[in-house]
Amino acid sequence: MQFTINGQRREADVDVRTTLLDLLREHLALTGSKKGCDHGQCGACTVLVNGRRINSCLTLAVMHQDDEITTIEGLGSPERLHSLQAAFVAHDGYQCGYCTPGQICSAVGMLGEVAAGWGSHVSADLSSPGLNTDEIAERMSGNLCRCAAYPNIRAAIAEVGADHASAAA
Ligand code: FES
Ligand code: FES
């Protein structure tokens, strides 16, 4: 199999039963994506595939020939944080941190969905002044946090969502 992962062309020889999550963690040593439930229930394994957020535990690696995959390792670096990573730090959007890579990848995908106008039934006004807390909770409902850091996670996402809304205005 060949993929583009975090902007780099990568190859892997995988069993057809290997999930995308196991490909990342076990074959490519990209352990930022976490295995929480392995059943599509927690969102800890969320990554971006061709810009869309998916649960990597629910999809087989062989389904992703030539896809562009972005994991938490590809969003930013300690020296140069992605805006959502910086917002999670500023708002204390984590406790143990196990759900955090999935939360951040999911939030990146979610803000892309908002920009594309998806799910506009959730809110009458998606452009201004940003996403409210209820809407963020609904749109992020696939990402669980066992530490219940939800208020801070939503505050971090709201800050970046408001920045996106002002930039688009
Ligand atoms: Fe994939 Fe929980 S590990 S959803
Ligand atoms: Fe611990 Fe979310 S910070 S599970």
From TrEMBL:
InterPro entries: 2Fe-2S-bd (IPR002888), 2Fe-2S-bd_dom_sf (IPR036884), 2Fe-2S_ferredoxin-like_sf (IPR036010), 2Fe-2S_ferredoxin-type (IPR001041), 2Fe2S_fd_BS (IPR006058), Aldehyde_Oxdr_Iron-Sulfur (IPR052914), Beta-grasp_dom_sf (IPR012675). It comes from the Bacteria. Residues 1-75 form the 2Fe-2S ferredoxin-type domain. GO terms for molecular function: 2 iron, 2 sulfur cluster binding; metal ion binding; oxidoreductase activity, acting on the aldehyde or oxo group of donors. Signal peptide: none annotated. Keywords: 2Fe-2S, Iron, Iron-sulfur, Metal-binding, Oxidoreductase. This is Xanthine dehydrogenase YagT iron-sulfur-binding subunit. It comes from Sphingomonas jinjuensis.
